Amino acid sequence: MIGRDDELRQLSAFVTAAERQALVLRGETGVGKSALLDHVAKLASGAGHGVIRAAGVEAESGLPFAGLHQLVHPLLPSVDGLDQVHRDVFATVYGRSGGKPPSVMSLGIAVLDLLSLVSSAKPLLLLLDDGQWLDASSVAVIGFVGRRLNGGSVKLLVGLRSDVASGFDTAALPVLPVGSLPDEAARRLLDLRRPGLDTHVRRLVLDQARGNPLALLELSADIDGDRTGGGAARLLGSPDASVRLPVPRRLQHVYGTRIKALGDDVRQELLRGALDGVGATPGTALAPGSRRYRMRDAEEALAAGLLSIDPVSGDFVFRHPLVRSTVVQTATPNERRAAHAALARVHRDDVERSATHLAAATVDPDEEVAAALEAAAESATRRGSAVAAVAWLTRAAELSENREDRSRRLGDAAFAAGHAGLFEQAQRLVRSDHAAGTDEPPASVVTSAYLAFFEDGDVRHSHRQVVTAIENLGEREPGKASDVLTRLVNLLLAIDQYAGDPAQWEETRALLGSLGDPVPARSLIYQDAWGDVVRHGAGVAERVEREFTDLSAMEPWDITRLSVAAYHVDTLSHYRPHLQRTVDREAETGFVRNSMTMLHLIMLDQMAVGEWDEAERTGQRDLELTSSHGYALLAHHTRAYLGLLAAMRGQVERARELQATVDAWARPRGVGFLTQITDTIGTTAALSEGDYEAAYLHAIGITPPGTFTPYAHQAPRTLLDLVEAALHTGRSEQARTHALAAHHAHLPDISPRLALTTHGALAMTATDPTEADHHYHHAETHPSAPTFPFELARIRLAHGIRLRHTQGSRSARPLLVQAAETFERLGAPTWAERARAELRASGLATRVTSAQLAELTWQERQIADLAAGGLTNKEIGQRMHLSPRTVSSHLYRVFPKLGITSRAALRDALAKLEEGS
């Protein structure tokens, strides 16, 4: 370890200090990262740590969770000590159960808990070499874990090549750069390991190695072992001594020369090991039962300095990752295919590994290999790796023996790519499946229409394109259900949801009705919920609930679509935990398209239940995600929600800016779903400002009073807005007509929120006090009323105003205070001020709370009056035949009710209470 004093000091501190739990070593190939990792491993072992080592390999960079398996495998005996939820997570990732793929967050938390459990008995050091070759799924989870190892007894150290891009580049882990050796240290190392070199050769090695320790040792060894006198020429790789190849290329030249000198059998053995990811550093060879290839009879390569012996397992391992990659590069294509074929036989019981080797071994179309790749893609999807699924499906299409299967697999690959946010790749797949002058295959229509829809909001042409594809498929395969048909139907329903066009919806309903049984039950739920919930929403909530009872049978997009249906019937809060458990995986390593809608839904539920600050953060995260992936439709959808949230909070300038942006994009395209939200933004902003005339005009742009425009999803949602705006502008008849229309349409039977707002609207518009009290009671005592605090506070405000005018200030105050408190908690200052103004009109100028306004009992009032007159607790007790302790307890309850903290304030508080009654 010559010339590494600074690095060794920092690494020693890393192992022993508590401040830093994760660290990345970054340097060029051969600079000595593995040697430093070896040093840290010995240091940690000597300090009593358990050490777990793993290494990324190029051959496994496409296998989901291959790297994570290496780190976690030695800890699996301890999994039984975790709770059932985390045991299920590991069972799914390891393919031992068919459960729902875990999110990055849930898997990361499970790994953290496992590490915590194991390290409670002994501190752990996790060493990961060649992290640049780690698969994307593993990088996401290990990065998550590394960022959260704070103050515990687990350390993570990752080695990375600086000349190769890596997922760890954005993992936000601290970095320790490892540079070349200084000149003096390079000379010392060379003299120590290769004493007696010719002066000219020594100078040549130092010049070509440029301080790279591996290059110093390998280049000098190549010359020192040469007996032909051509070592220096080989070192240069050129007769011109002025040529300076990059160090990795120089080393590859050296290793390539040694490999070519081996016998054929040994070279083939090395090739099989390299293609299957055999370890490249001691300590990384797997134990018996490993799924990797084990090299045999390779002593010749060991003698040539290409292999080492793992001291634990006794297996051959490559001396350096560069040796492994050079073995592959020096082999001919036929040699590589033969090696892959042999490895496929070795791994015939491993669906993913076997398929990977079969794909590389096969040149001509082969249906058996294509089916194996398709099965591997399905396995990857279940385990949460969309990128691997796309790659395997694409290769399966290339190896398909007939046009129909090729088209189907390309369609599946494009579908997965679109959901993963890989738009360019999805477009290439679609184009590759559509020959000029031929009809576009149905599977390709799914992707081409999907891209046009989500990238540019094309709800007109994409509707016609999908309808035509469904009709053609129905004519060609009448009465036959298929994945392609299901995707086309669900895409058509999504397009029509955004279009909000009654004619398109009616055409779709007729088309699906003509198809009959092949239309899945879930698609019929989407049809009824996403289209016209007023006319078709009865019973949808129960149907959604039944579907959610079997999550294990659902794909990520099934959960997303059902959650959209739940939003339309206002039961989304029941299912938000399912969304939050999966959204991080979908965003980072899986189907990113689903995560965008999941974030939409989480934001909507946060808005509904009053978590407005959290909703703002969720919306901003979603906007970054949708914008960065080119989903223009979903980006504008997110802006619309952010605008609506701003309007609810009284941030009218921001609300109207977002309203204008969304409207200018959506209206020319006919995206009615978004233009309805922009009208709602206008309504809500005007209500926040108290501009009821403007609010009314915006509201009737969504639906006229007394009816609910068909297929206008905002029509029932703005019921309270239209009624309130109409009442404040003297349009009592229109307000009453609209409230009665909600009652006649049975909106309370569709959703809990519509039950709350319908009773509120009926109460606000009732002229009969008894009827008004009846509906206010139903609204305010509805079991789900607290779930919708903004609407409940508005109803309480209206009720309080009514009571102040009909029954006096004292009756109104509790409702007005509750409304004011809710508006302030939500962050709706204009609404809060309106409630406070009503409180001041009721005779309360102080900022009292609902607890302060709770009525005093007769006994509490008597005790308070006596205490205000200056009597002690003992004197009050003698007069009222109570113990002093009981008197004290009563006063303890009286003080908060009156908003005071001492006896001295009693007289004034009681006087104010008397004035207001």
From TrEMBL:
<dbReference type="InterPro" id="IPR016032">
    <property type="entry name" value="Sig_transdc_resp-reg_C-effctor"/>
</dbReference>
<dbReference type="InterPro" id="IPR027417">
    <property type="entry name" value="P-loop_NTPase"/>
</dbReference>
<dbReference type="InterPro" id="IPR041664">
    <property type="entry name" value="AAA_16"/>
</dbReference>
<dbReference type="Pfam" id="PF00196">
    <property type="entry name" value="GerE"/>
</dbReference>
<keyword id="KW-0067">ATP-binding</keyword>
<feature type="domain" description="HTH luxR-type">
    <location>
        <begin position="849"/>
        <end position="914"/>
    </location>
</feature>
<dbReference type="InterPro" id="IPR000792">
    <property type="entry name" value="Tscrpt_reg_LuxR_C"/>
</dbReference>
<keyword id="KW-0547">Nucleotide-binding</keyword>
<dbReference type="Pfam" id="PF13191">
    <property type="entry name" value="AAA_16"/>
</dbReference>
<protein>
    <submittedName>
        <fullName>AAA family ATPase</fullName>
    </submittedName>
</protein>
<dbReference type="InterPro" id="IPR036388">
    <property type="entry name" value="WH-like_DNA-bd_sf"/>
</dbReference>
